[in-house]
């Protein structure tokens, strides 16, 4: 009798999108949440999301950066980035210098006030922090693996710009220490590390040579 009831309750196919597409919907919702928090947490300088991205990008590497580098890194356009830099200059968050490699070109760095704003931007807004705290550590590891793999695949197909993450770095050795709690190896610091320590953004990143 119980076996009959189990069979009646079994649903072989659940209608709706397949798991991969459900994941894309979920990632889209998370991206929407990040953008909403960015608008609500614009700070004393009332930064737009793009302006905040520029500040964070410049903070990730202290070297002077040309506008073209910022355009490529943020997958934006020259006019849009130019407007953002002009606004940041007016807010005293960036400074323009002569490019030491080319006196005809200009490069951009953060001012002291810009560095302080970059530190503020590293603080995770409360709604996102509470959402992250609700995720089990093992799930965080799995999500980092999955997100890293998706970003790497998109970069390989040149669908998005290369980001400074472990799996695209020449120092990264995947599964170098099999059957270990820290299976991967970072050649830059010569140390093993676990999935939970995978970096999506690392200032010491050096890209691997890409297949032509």
TrEMBL record:
Residues 20-152 form the HTH marR-type domain. GO terms for biological process: response to stress. InterPro entries: HTH_MarR-typ, MarR/SlyA-like, WH-like_DNA-bd_sf, WH_DNA-bd_sf. One of its GO terms (molecular function) is DNA-binding transcription factor activity. SUPFAM superfamilies: Winged helix' DNA-binding domain (SSF46785). This is Winged helix-turn-helix transcriptional regulator. The lineage of its organism: Bacteria, Bacillati, Actinomycetota, Actinomycetes, Pseudonocardiales.
């Amino acid at each position: 009798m119980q076996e009959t009831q189990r069979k009646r309750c079994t649903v072989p196919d659940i209608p709706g999108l397949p798991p991969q597409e459900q994941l894309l919907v979920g990632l889209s919702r998370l991206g929407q949440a990040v953008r909403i928090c960015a608008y609500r947490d614009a700070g004393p300088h009332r930064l737009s999301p793009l302006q905040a991205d520029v500040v964070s990008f410049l903070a990730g590497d202290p070297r002077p950066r040309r506008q073209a580098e910022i355009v490529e890194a943020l997958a934006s356009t020259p006019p849009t980035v130019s407007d953002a830099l002009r606004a940041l200059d007016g807010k005293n968050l960036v400074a323009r210098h002569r490019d030491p490699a080319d006196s005809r070109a200009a490069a951009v760095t953060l001012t002291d006030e810009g560095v302080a704003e970059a530190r503020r931007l590293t603080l995770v807004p409360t709604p996102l922090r509470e959402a992250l705290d609700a995720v089990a550590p093992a799930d965080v590891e799995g999500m980092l693996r999955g997100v890293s793999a998706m970003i790497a695949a998109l970069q390989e197909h040149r669908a998005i710009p290369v980001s400074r993450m472990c799996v695209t770095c020449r120092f990264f050795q995947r599964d170098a220490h099999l059957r270990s709690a820290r299976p991967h190896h970072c050649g830059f610091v010569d140390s093993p590390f676990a999935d939970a320590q995978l970096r999506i953004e690392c200032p010491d990143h050096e890209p691997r040579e890409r297949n032509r």
